[in-house]
Amino acid sequence: MKVLVTGAKGFMGRNLCESLKAIRDGKDRRKRYQRLLPLEVYEYDRGNTADELDAWCAQSDFVFNLAGVNRPKDPIQFMEGNFGFANDLLAALERHENRCPVMLASSVQASLEGRFAESEYGKSKLAGESLFRSYSERTGAPVLIYRFPNVYGKWCRPRYNSVVATFCDAIANSKPYEVSDPAVELELLYIDDLVEEMLKALLGEPHRCGYDGLDMTEGDDFCACPATDKVSLGEIVELLQGFKRVRDTLDIPNMAAGSFRKKLYSTYLSYIDIEDLAYPLKPNKDERGSFTEILHMDDYGQVSVNISAPRVVKGNHWHHTKWEKFLVVSGEGLIRERRIGFDENGERFPVAEYRVNGADRLVVEMVPGMAHSIENLSDTRDLVTLIWANEPFDPERPDTYFEEV
């Protein structure tokens, strides 16, 4: 299949092209996309020539028209950039009698409803929609018109046309920003969800819909990506400020699959300056070695790294509810566990021993009611252990009681 993407260097175009090229190059091997192979991707943007566009229009099996003008100096450029280019594109396809499907990236502003009633951008997008419908009626070529809301994600330009990109860049890099009205609500579409919908369209599986003003309805005049979220500016800023604090608190918030929080956190991370991607942790050190918390997760516990100096024994305690998984990643050690208390004969319960080292990748579980210890068997090397606990450490309720194994 031969696919033409206009606006290929823009925010949506770049994300789509990278996904298409991953399929083309065998890096994305998901079965459903293999029927697109062999795949050619034609990337058209301002640096390309009219001759290249003409040649690609003659050959393409599918066209994504993502080109457009968002923030011109003169409002008249909205019509020139959004309507004018679309007209040239469709004329080239018609000239070559190419009846392949054509997708148009329109906008909810084309509804000209509510706060968009006087939008010059919306007017230019609505004119583009009419142009595409006329082209389809005249030629029989399928057209897919998507009215996108605010789109956010990696590679979106801050201080341009995305408030999410602006807030992410500002908060991640400690730059000034303003929130005009925290109560203002936005409908947001994550770029990966948009790209997934574009790939479905390419496979002939777009989500069809209609519109009544700004409200999506049943129908087939339009297409849509249904995975959107409605969030206020204040909520966005509050989440981003929380993400900023993670390096200090180590508290990773819950991020359910498909949640706005998960998508926004991925977006936020992509705006951190490349020179600021490392940050120090605070080890708790003594003569025995060190214990360093890496991260806390609300419902999924805590990850830490423990370093034991040569011949040191650590632990010798037990828990009521807390449980842990130990994974030695360097060195050689001995883990001992014993059920606390005494058996029916008044004898201490037997000790189980697990010899561990950095090569075996053996996970040993420290379970409730079992005293446990870990000993570094080396005379010269540190023992490094990765530890996951089912709950973050709470100094007010440590649930840790001394007991020699």
Can you put this structure into words, describing what you see?
Helix 5 (163-172) runs parallel beside helix 7. The chain has helices spanning 11-24, 50-59, 76-95, 120-139, 163-172, 191-202, 233-249, 260-270; strands at 2-6, 40-44, 62-65, 102-107, 143-148, 150-152, 185-190, 208-212, 215-223, 228-232, 251-252, 284-286, 289-297, 301-308, 313-318, 324-330, 332-339, 351-357, 363-366, 370-376, 383-389, 401-402. Strands 11, 12, 13, 14, 16, 19 and 21 form a 7-stranded mixed sheet that branches. It is built from 8 helices and 22 strands. The protein is elongated. The N and C termini lie far apart (66 Å). Among the domains are: 2-148, Rossmann fold, CATH 3.40.50; 284-402, Jelly Rolls. The protein is α/β, with parallel strands linked by helices. Helix 5 links the parallel strand 6 (150-152) and strand 7. It is 28% helix and 31% strand.
